[in-house]
Amino acid sequence: MALTIRTALFDKFSFERQELGQDVVLSEVISTIQQVPGVDYVDVDILDSVSETEAQNPDILKTKLQELATLGITCGNGQPKQRIPVNLAVFDSTTNPLFPAQLAILSPQVPDTLILKELKL
């Protein structure tokens, strides 16, 4: 079942399905998982992001994922983020730089960014 859930999430949050500036919302993650046949219960412990720069360096990525796992366990309210904000392109007229739009995707090339644990009853 974990493979089916992983496939559904990679599909939902793939490059082809996400728009520039489209936030990743926890309710969409949960909804996607709940639509997988056989899923009775969903509990998301951590919803966060890893930058492209962090994902390209295995040592930095490993450290970042360990930090996120620790935060997920010790977070004050015990709840994951409700959304990962993603920015649209912005032009700053005071300094004239154009800040590019962002795209949040879930990439199968970085498998450790999606960790699934099946709850056995």
Secondary structure elements and their pairing?
Layout lengths: L1 H11 L11 E2 H9 L17 H5 L1 H17 L8 E2 L5 E2 L6 E2 L22
Antiparallel strand pairs: 1-2, 3-4
How many helix segments?
4
Major sheet: size, sense and barrel closure?
Answer: 2 strands, antiparallel
Helix content: 25-40%
**Spatial extent as radius of gyration:** 16 Å
Name the strands of the widest sheet in spatial order.
1-2
What is the N-to-C succession of helices and strands? HEHHHEEE
How many strand segments? 4
What percentage of the residues does DSSP assign to strands (E)? Answer: 5-15%
Mean pLDDT equals 82
Class derived from helix and strand content = mainly alpha
Any low-confidence stretches, pLDDT <50, length ≥5? none
Count structural domains.
1
Task: Give a verbal description of the structure.
The protein has one domain. Helix content is 35%, strand content 7%. It is mainly α and 121 residues long. A hairpin with a 6-residue loop joins strand 3 (90-91) and strand 4. It has helices spanning 2-12, 26-34, 52-56, 58-74; strands at residues 24-25, 83-84, 90-91, 98-99. The radius of gyration is 16 Å and the shape is globular. The longest helix has 17 residues, at 58-74. The protein is built from 4 helices and 4 strands. The protein has a two-stranded antiparallel ribbon. A two-stranded antiparallel sheet has the order 3-4.
